[in-house]
Amino acid sequence: MRIGGRLAAAIEILEDMQARHRPAAEALRDWGASHRFAGAGDRAAIGNIVYDGLRHRAMSRWRFGADTARADAFGALLSGFGLGVEEIASKLEGDRFAPETMTDGEIERWRGSDPRSAPPDIRANVPGWSETFFLEGFGEDWVNEASALSTRPPVDLRVNTLKADGEKVERALAKDGVRRTAIARNGLRIPPVDGFGRHPNVQATPEFQKGWFEIQDEGSQIVSDLIFAQQKEQILDFCAGGGGKTLAMAAAMDNRGQIHAYDADRGRLAPIVERLKRSGVRNVQVHSDRSSLDALKGKMDRVVVDAPCTGSGTWRRKPDAKWRLTEAQLRTRQAEQSAILDEASAFVRPGGYLVYITCSMFRAENEEQVYAFGERNEEWDLLSAGEVWQDLFGFDKPSPWSEDLNCITLTPAATNTDGFFFAVMQKLS
Ligand SMILES: C[S@@+](CC[C@H](N)C(=O)[O-])C[C@H]1O[C@@H](n2cnc3c(N)ncnc32)[C@H](O)[C@@H]1O
Questions:
Q1: Among 69, 162, 258, 268, which residue carries the largest CB count within 10 Å?
Q2: Across 263-282, average pLDDT
Q3: What is the ipTM of this complex?
Q4: 239 and 200 in one domain?
Q5: Catalytic residue annotation
Q6: Residue span of the structural domain in which 271 resides
Q7: CATH number of the structural domain spanning residue 170
Q8: How many CB atoms are closer than 10 A to CB 103?
Q9: Residue 34: is it exposed, middle or buried by C-beta count within 10 angstroms (0-12/13-18/19+)?
């Protein structure tokens, strides 16, 4: 397919998403199933236009003055791919599969609009309602922080130290352009792709099948490190999901001690079994039944709450989610988070630790939850995650956001990772 056909397909998919309120991955998959002639390269290229269209949606629609899939898709080529107006016109010329090229009116509107004069939420490419929530956490830096969520993400790998080391994996994937991550100790990174490029399918490699590495964003690796899981400890991973952090902790513990992995949603927990096997993890007990946790009350050295959240820290990877999220959903997540913190805290032994993690950028889901928990429960102390950071990563790495060295927030702008929040509290008695 030429660029015109790819652009037309992206517009069709974006229209479908808008009309049926469906996630991008689902709309792309259905389009692929009904257009079997399109090869892997075409699908990836169409995906890039769709995802960049969603990443830059607010600014594209503002500049074109149109709330349309067409504005998203042309905006993707202009802002995401960095193509010029003339360049696009010449690429579409004579292509019978291309959509109508940009009209004089559209070009005039695009060129006549100055992005710097756009309202802050447009410059940040986020929903208007979220401005207040970004402002609470990042103050006058909020537009810079939020707009970094519109960049393309890398693919990050965590070397599974139970089976391999960094050099071994780096050698095996050298042709894929992997390099060491800046902060995470066992991380490798394949940088974001340009233009129509696509990342290699590293999950298809024999090294992945052998369990040498996992796909895990560097931010997720860093917070897994900050949990500071110690060999011989008893740890409850209360929101284990597919086990991303469980696996990282198991490797940090060198398969010693015991991790109990639980999730309220059995479907989300299910993949963990296969992943544990592939990774050679032997110190994890999976609990799909809540009642099987009863015997652990008051006995755990650490309890990890990787809470359900808005996922605003992952908008680089899931830009459709930012346009679907509502303030009401954020409020629902907050209520869940405080209930889960209260429930999970009962498993911590006196002197033990409660770790709270989200992949949200919003203070309302992060510091506010931790401070409110402290007010409800006086026998807990908020510890300095900043000191653990310095012990683990030193002083020469990109710095996370931290009001007081206690809680830590990673962001694409600050640490070049997905957005993550980390806090740890100790039970005094
Ligand atoms: C951010 S995800 C966990 C991701 C996972 N820890 C990882 O690293 O791959 C949050 C998880 O919390 C689970 N969850 C939601 N409500 C819960 C509850 N009341 N108790 C336990 N888990 C819950 C969800 O099913 C979801 O899998």
A1: 69
A2: 98
A3: 0.99
A4: no
A5: 359
A6: 219-427
A7: 3.30.70.1170
A8: 9
A9: exposed
